Amino acid sequence: MKTLELGYIHIKDIVIGSESKIENGVLYVNEAEMKALILEDEALKDVHFDVAKPGESTRITPVKDVIEPRFKVSGNGGVFPGMVNKVDVVGEGRTHVLKDMAVVTCGKIVGYQEGRIDMSGPGADYTPFSKTINLVMIAEPADFLLAEDADATLPIENIHKPTYERAVRMAGLKLAHYLGEISKDMEPEEIETFSTPNLKEGIEMYPDLPRVVYVAMLQTQGLLHDTYVYGVDAKRTLTTMLWPTEIMDGAIVSGNCVAPCDKVTTYHHLHNPVIEDCYKHHGKDINFMGVILTNENVFLADKERHSDMVAKLCQWMGLDGVLITEEGYGNPDTDLMMNCRKVERAGTKVVLI
Known about the structure:
By secondary structure, the chain is an alpha/beta fold. 24% of the residues lie in helices and 35% in strands. The strands form five sheets. It has a five-stranded mixed sheet. A five-stranded mixed sheet has the order 16-18-13-19-20, sandwiched between helices. The longest helix is centred in the middle third of the chain and has 21 residues, at 161-181.
Protein backbone atom coordinates (compact mmCIF):
# COMPACT_ATOMS: atom_id res chain seq x y z
CA MET A 1 0.00 0.00 0.00
CA LYS A 2 1.31 3.44 -0.96
CA THR A 3 -0.20 6.32 1.06
CA LEU A 4 0.39 10.05 0.62
CA GLU A 5 -1.00 12.81 2.82
CA LEU A 6 -1.39 16.25 1.27
CA GLY A 7 -1.48 18.95 3.92
CA TYR A 8 -3.13 22.12 2.63
CA ILE A 9 -2.13 25.62 3.74
CA HIS A 10 -4.47 28.14 2.10
CA ILE A 11 -2.88 31.36 0.85
CA LYS A 12 -5.05 34.49 0.80
CA ASP A 13 -2.43 37.03 -0.29
CA ILE A 14 1.24 37.35 -1.27
CA VAL A 15 3.48 40.20 -0.10
CA ILE A 16 6.98 40.69 -1.55
CA GLY A 17 9.32 42.10 1.08
CA SER A 18 12.32 41.33 3.28
CA GLU A 19 11.32 38.10 5.03
CA SER A 20 9.73 34.77 4.21
CA LYS A 21 6.90 33.49 6.40
CA ILE A 22 3.21 32.63 6.41
CA GLU A 23 0.95 34.48 8.83
CA ASN A 24 -2.84 34.48 8.88
CA GLY A 25 -2.97 33.10 5.36
CA VAL A 26 -0.58 35.73 3.96
CA LEU A 27 2.60 34.51 2.28
CA TYR A 28 5.46 36.97 2.85
CA VAL A 29 8.44 36.34 0.57
CA ASN A 30 12.01 37.62 0.82
CA GLU A 31 12.79 39.17 -2.54
CA ALA A 32 16.56 39.13 -2.05
CA GLU A 33 16.60 35.43 -1.15
CA MET A 34 14.42 34.53 -4.13
CA LYS A 35 16.61 36.54 -6.47
CA ALA A 36 19.82 34.95 -5.15
CA LEU A 37 18.31 31.48 -5.58
CA ILE A 38 17.28 32.09 -9.19
CA LEU A 39 20.52 33.80 -10.23
CA GLU A 40 22.61 30.82 -9.15
CA ASP A 41 22.17 29.83 -12.81
CA GLU A 42 24.66 31.74 -14.94
CA ALA A 43 22.28 31.52 -17.90
CA LEU A 44 20.10 34.17 -16.21
CA LYS A 45 21.33 37.73 -15.63
CA ASP A 46 18.35 39.18 -13.80
CA VAL A 47 14.95 38.26 -12.38
CA HIS A 48 11.94 40.28 -11.29
CA PHE A 49 8.87 39.32 -9.27
CA ASP A 50 5.31 40.54 -9.26
CA VAL A 51 1.97 39.43 -7.84
CA ALA A 52 -1.17 38.99 -9.96
CA LYS A 53 -4.50 38.60 -8.17
CA PRO A 54 -7.93 37.44 -9.35
CA GLY A 55 -10.07 40.23 -10.76
CA GLU A 56 -7.19 42.58 -11.54
CA SER A 57 -6.87 44.13 -14.98
CA THR A 58 -3.71 42.13 -15.59
CA ARG A 59 -2.43 39.94 -18.41
CA ILE A 60 0.55 37.63 -17.80
CA THR A 61 2.46 36.70 -20.96
CA PRO A 62 4.41 34.84 -22.24
CA VAL A 63 3.68 32.10 -19.69
CA LYS A 64 6.12 29.19 -19.73
CA ASP A 65 4.99 27.10 -16.75
CA VAL A 66 2.73 27.23 -13.70
CA ILE A 67 3.77 25.37 -10.54
CA GLU A 68 2.08 24.86 -7.19
CA PRO A 69 4.51 25.20 -4.24
CA ARG A 70 4.93 21.93 -2.36
CA PHE A 71 7.37 20.60 0.23
CA LYS A 72 7.89 17.07 1.50
CA VAL A 73 7.88 16.97 5.30
CA SER A 74 8.01 13.17 5.70
CA GLY A 75 8.59 10.13 3.52
CA ASN A 76 11.22 9.36 0.91
CA GLY A 77 12.97 12.06 -1.09
CA GLY A 78 11.58 15.49 -1.89
CA VAL A 79 9.18 17.06 -4.37
CA PHE A 80 10.35 17.36 -7.99
CA PRO A 81 12.79 14.43 -7.63
CA GLY A 82 15.61 14.40 -10.15
CA MET A 83 15.12 18.12 -10.71
CA VAL A 84 15.56 20.11 -7.47
CA ASN A 85 15.87 17.10 -5.16
CA LYS A 86 17.86 13.90 -5.46
CA VAL A 87 16.41 10.96 -7.35
CA ASP A 88 14.28 8.94 -4.95
CA VAL A 89 10.91 7.23 -5.27
CA VAL A 90 8.34 9.65 -3.89
CA GLY A 91 4.59 9.36 -3.36
CA GLU A 92 4.27 8.50 0.33
CA GLY A 93 4.49 10.28 3.67
CA ARG A 94 3.26 13.86 3.97
CA THR A 95 3.66 16.77 1.55
CA HIS A 96 2.61 20.32 2.37
CA VAL A 97 0.82 22.28 -0.35
CA LEU A 98 0.37 26.05 -0.63
CA LYS A 99 -3.19 26.13 -1.95
CA ASP A 100 -4.96 28.85 -3.93
CA MET A 101 -1.69 30.23 -5.31
CA ALA A 102 0.83 29.39 -8.01
CA VAL A 103 4.28 30.28 -9.31
CA VAL A 104 4.08 31.55 -12.91
CA THR A 105 7.32 31.67 -14.94
CA CYS A 106 7.77 34.25 -17.68
CA GLY A 107 10.55 35.81 -19.73
CA LYS A 108 11.57 36.52 -23.29
CA ILE A 109 9.65 34.55 -25.88
CA VAL A 110 11.14 31.20 -26.86
CA GLY A 111 8.33 30.07 -29.18
CA TYR A 112 5.55 32.06 -30.79
CA GLN A 113 2.83 29.91 -29.23
CA GLU A 114 3.58 30.53 -25.56
CA GLY A 115 0.61 31.02 -23.26
CA ARG A 116 -1.08 33.88 -21.47
CA ILE A 117 -3.19 34.32 -18.34
CA ASP A 118 -5.85 37.03 -18.09
CA MET A 119 -6.76 37.78 -14.48
CA SER A 120 -10.05 39.42 -15.49
CA GLY A 121 -12.26 39.92 -18.54
CA PRO A 122 -13.44 37.32 -21.06
CA GLY A 123 -10.04 35.59 -21.21
CA ALA A 124 -10.15 34.81 -17.49
CA ASP A 125 -12.87 32.22 -18.11
CA TYR A 126 -10.46 30.09 -20.17
CA THR A 127 -7.75 29.52 -17.56
CA PRO A 128 -7.89 28.16 -14.00
CA PHE A 129 -5.03 30.47 -13.06
CA SER A 130 -7.22 33.57 -13.17
CA LYS A 131 -8.56 32.27 -9.86
CA THR A 132 -5.20 31.71 -8.12
CA ILE A 133 -2.96 34.34 -6.52
CA ASN A 134 0.09 34.19 -8.76
CA LEU A 135 3.69 34.97 -7.87
CA VAL A 136 5.09 35.86 -11.28
CA MET A 137 8.79 35.34 -11.98
CA ILE A 138 10.21 37.21 -14.99
CA ALA A 139 13.67 35.87 -15.87
CA GLU A 140 16.11 37.62 -18.21
CA PRO A 141 18.66 35.60 -20.23
CA ALA A 142 22.37 36.20 -19.76
CA ASP A 143 24.20 38.14 -22.45
CA PHE A 144 26.17 35.09 -23.59
CA LEU A 145 22.90 33.53 -24.79
CA LEU A 146 22.50 36.36 -27.28
CA ALA A 147 24.27 36.50 -30.64
CA GLU A 148 27.17 38.99 -30.73
CA ASP A 149 25.35 41.29 -33.13
CA ALA A 150 21.92 40.76 -31.57
CA ASP A 151 19.72 43.50 -30.30
CA ALA A 152 18.88 42.37 -26.75
CA THR A 153 15.35 43.66 -27.20
CA LEU A 154 14.70 41.07 -29.92
CA PRO A 155 13.73 37.89 -28.04
CA ILE A 156 13.26 35.27 -30.73
CA GLU A 157 16.02 34.07 -33.05
CA ASN A 158 18.90 35.54 -31.07
CA ILE A 159 18.51 33.47 -27.91
CA HIS A 160 19.94 29.97 -27.45
CA LYS A 161 16.48 28.59 -26.80
CA PRO A 162 17.15 25.22 -25.11
CA THR A 163 19.57 26.72 -22.57
CA TYR A 164 17.21 29.57 -21.72
CA GLU A 165 14.18 27.25 -21.54
CA ARG A 166 15.98 24.93 -19.14
CA ALA A 167 17.16 27.82 -16.96
CA VAL A 168 13.66 29.26 -16.59
CA ARG A 169 12.11 25.81 -16.07
CA MET A 170 14.56 24.97 -13.27
CA ALA A 171 14.19 28.44 -11.74
CA GLY A 172 10.44 27.96 -11.44
CA LEU A 173 10.80 24.57 -9.76
CA LYS A 174 13.43 25.89 -7.34
CA LEU A 175 11.23 28.85 -6.46
CA ALA A 176 8.16 26.64 -5.88
CA HIS A 177 10.24 24.35 -3.64
CA TYR A 178 11.63 27.35 -1.72
CA LEU A 179 8.12 28.69 -1.10
CA GLY A 180 6.79 25.28 -0.09
CA GLU A 181 9.58 24.91 2.47
CA ILE A 182 8.29 27.97 4.33
CA SER A 183 5.37 25.79 5.47
CA LYS A 184 7.45 22.85 6.73
CA ASP A 185 6.85 23.51 10.44
CA MET A 186 3.20 24.54 10.08
CA GLU A 187 0.12 22.50 10.88
CA PRO A 188 -2.04 22.19 7.75
CA GLU A 189 -5.58 23.50 7.80
CA GLU A 190 -6.75 20.26 6.21
CA ILE A 191 -5.21 16.95 5.20
CA GLU A 192 -6.30 14.77 2.30
CA THR A 193 -5.12 11.16 2.13
CA PHE A 194 -4.57 9.12 -1.04
CA SER A 195 -3.86 5.38 -0.83
CA THR A 196 -3.24 2.85 -3.59
CA PRO A 197 -2.79 -0.88 -2.91
CA ASN A 198 -0.28 -2.88 -4.88
CA LEU A 199 -1.65 -5.26 -7.51
CA LYS A 200 -1.96 -8.25 -5.19
CA GLU A 201 -3.56 -6.20 -2.41
CA GLY A 202 -5.94 -4.51 -4.82
CA ILE A 203 -7.22 -7.77 -6.28
CA GLU A 204 -7.73 -9.22 -2.79
CA MET A 205 -9.43 -6.06 -1.45
CA TYR A 206 -11.83 -5.54 -4.36
CA PRO A 207 -12.23 -8.88 -6.17
CA ASP A 208 -15.58 -7.92 -7.70
CA LEU A 209 -14.65 -4.46 -9.00
CA PRO A 210 -13.30 -3.84 -12.51
CA ARG A 211 -9.54 -3.34 -12.55
CA VAL A 212 -8.81 0.03 -14.18
CA VAL A 213 -5.59 1.82 -15.08
CA TYR A 214 -5.07 5.35 -16.33
CA VAL A 215 -2.77 5.70 -19.36
CA ALA A 216 -1.20 9.18 -19.40
CA MET A 217 0.36 10.12 -22.72
CA LEU A 218 3.11 12.73 -22.20
CA GLN A 219 4.15 15.40 -24.68
CA THR A 220 7.62 14.40 -25.94
CA GLN A 221 7.98 15.79 -29.45
CA GLY A 222 11.12 17.79 -28.68
CA LEU A 223 11.65 21.34 -29.93
CA LEU A 224 10.41 22.68 -26.57
CA HIS A 225 7.51 20.19 -26.51
CA ASP A 226 8.92 18.09 -23.67
CA THR A 227 8.01 16.50 -20.34
CA TYR A 228 10.31 15.17 -17.61
CA VAL A 229 9.87 12.11 -15.38
CA TYR A 230 12.16 11.93 -12.34
CA GLY A 231 14.38 14.41 -14.17
CA VAL A 232 14.64 12.37 -17.38
CA ASP A 233 13.35 13.65 -20.72
CA ALA A 234 10.37 11.34 -21.23
CA LYS A 235 11.15 10.71 -24.91
CA ARG A 236 14.20 8.78 -23.67
CA THR A 237 12.10 6.44 -21.55
CA LEU A 238 10.12 3.29 -22.27
CA THR A 239 6.49 2.97 -21.25
CA THR A 240 6.36 2.37 -17.48
CA MET A 241 4.10 2.26 -14.41
CA LEU A 242 3.87 4.84 -11.62
CA TRP A 243 1.95 5.02 -8.38
CA PRO A 244 -0.56 7.88 -8.79
CA THR A 245 0.83 9.54 -5.67
CA GLU A 246 4.28 9.82 -7.26
CA ILE A 247 2.78 12.27 -9.74
CA MET A 248 1.26 14.30 -6.86
CA ASP A 249 4.79 14.60 -5.44
CA GLY A 250 6.17 16.15 -8.63
CA ALA A 251 7.62 13.09 -10.38
CA ILE A 252 6.37 14.65 -13.65
CA VAL A 253 7.20 18.25 -14.60
CA SER A 254 6.38 20.18 -17.73
CA GLY A 255 8.88 21.30 -20.36
CA ASN A 256 6.22 22.61 -22.75
CA CYS A 257 6.93 26.11 -23.98
CA VAL A 258 4.89 26.27 -27.16
CA ALA A 259 1.36 24.90 -26.83
CA PRO A 260 -0.93 27.62 -25.48
CA CYS A 261 -4.58 26.58 -25.45
CA ASP A 262 -3.96 23.02 -24.28
CA LYS A 263 -0.68 23.59 -22.48
CA VAL A 264 -0.23 21.03 -19.70
CA THR A 265 1.75 22.78 -16.98
CA THR A 266 3.47 21.23 -13.98
CA TYR A 267 0.46 22.43 -11.95
CA HIS A 268 -1.82 20.27 -14.14
CA HIS A 269 0.35 17.21 -13.53
CA LEU A 270 0.22 17.81 -9.77
CA HIS A 271 -3.58 18.13 -10.04
CA ASN A 272 -4.24 15.54 -12.74
CA PRO A 273 -8.07 15.45 -12.83
CA VAL A 274 -8.24 11.86 -14.07
CA ILE A 275 -6.17 10.66 -11.12
CA GLU A 276 -8.26 12.71 -8.69
CA ASP A 277 -11.51 11.31 -10.12
CA CYS A 278 -10.21 7.74 -10.14
CA TYR A 279 -9.44 8.05 -6.43
CA LYS A 280 -13.02 9.23 -5.80
CA HIS A 281 -14.31 6.05 -7.48
CA HIS A 282 -11.63 3.70 -6.10
CA GLY A 283 -13.12 0.98 -3.93
CA LYS A 284 -16.65 1.97 -4.91
CA ASP A 285 -17.19 1.14 -8.56
CA ILE A 286 -13.62 0.63 -9.84
CA ASN A 287 -10.36 -0.83 -8.56
CA PHE A 288 -7.83 1.89 -9.50
CA MET A 289 -4.60 0.01 -10.13
CA GLY A 290 -2.24 2.87 -11.04
CA VAL A 291 -0.88 4.91 -13.93
CA ILE A 292 0.85 3.82 -17.12
CA LEU A 293 3.12 6.54 -18.52
CA THR A 294 3.88 6.57 -22.21
CA ASN A 295 5.22 9.20 -24.58
CA GLU A 296 4.41 10.83 -27.92
CA ASN A 297 7.48 10.67 -30.12
CA VAL A 298 7.52 11.83 -33.72
CA PHE A 299 9.01 8.75 -35.42
CA LEU A 300 6.84 5.80 -36.45
CA ALA A 301 9.16 3.20 -34.92
CA ASP A 302 8.87 4.94 -31.53
CA LYS A 303 5.09 5.11 -31.82
CA GLU A 304 4.95 1.38 -32.56
CA ARG A 305 7.34 0.55 -29.72
CA HIS A 306 5.51 2.50 -27.04
CA SER A 307 1.98 1.54 -28.05
CA ASP A 308 3.12 -2.10 -28.05
CA MET A 309 4.36 -1.63 -24.48
CA VAL A 310 1.08 -0.04 -23.37
CA ALA A 311 -0.94 -2.94 -24.75
CA LYS A 312 1.46 -5.49 -23.25
CA LEU A 313 1.22 -3.98 -19.76
CA CYS A 314 -2.59 -3.87 -19.91
CA GLN A 315 -2.75 -7.51 -21.01
CA TRP A 316 -0.13 -8.59 -18.47
CA MET A 317 -2.08 -6.98 -15.60
CA GLY A 318 -5.36 -8.54 -16.73
CA LEU A 319 -7.13 -5.18 -16.76
CA ASP A 320 -10.82 -4.70 -17.41
CA GLY A 321 -10.54 -1.12 -18.63
CA VAL A 322 -8.22 1.82 -19.22
CA LEU A 323 -8.70 5.56 -19.49
CA ILE A 324 -6.34 7.29 -21.94
CA THR A 325 -5.56 11.00 -22.17
CA GLU A 326 -3.57 12.68 -24.91
CA GLU A 327 -1.35 15.70 -24.38
CA GLY A 328 -1.25 18.02 -27.37
CA TYR A 329 -2.83 17.40 -30.73
CA GLY A 330 -1.98 16.69 -34.37
CA ASN A 331 0.99 14.33 -34.50
CA PRO A 332 0.14 12.71 -31.11
CA ASP A 333 -3.32 11.77 -32.44
CA THR A 334 -1.52 8.87 -34.13
CA ASP A 335 -0.16 7.62 -30.78
CA LEU A 336 -3.62 7.97 -29.22
CA MET A 337 -5.33 5.80 -31.83
CA MET A 338 -2.51 3.23 -31.85
CA ASN A 339 -2.82 2.89 -28.07
CA CYS A 340 -6.58 2.55 -28.33
CA ARG A 341 -6.52 -0.05 -31.07
CA LYS A 342 -3.77 -2.22 -29.59
CA VAL A 343 -5.14 -2.19 -26.04
CA GLU A 344 -8.63 -3.16 -27.23
CA ARG A 345 -7.25 -5.91 -29.48
CA ALA A 346 -5.37 -7.24 -26.43
CA GLY A 347 -8.70 -7.60 -24.62
CA THR A 348 -9.10 -4.47 -22.50
CA LYS A 349 -11.90 -1.93 -22.90
CA VAL A 350 -10.77 1.64 -23.61
CA VAL A 351 -12.21 5.09 -22.94
CA LEU A 352 -10.47 8.05 -24.60
CA ILE A 353 -10.54 11.52 -23.09
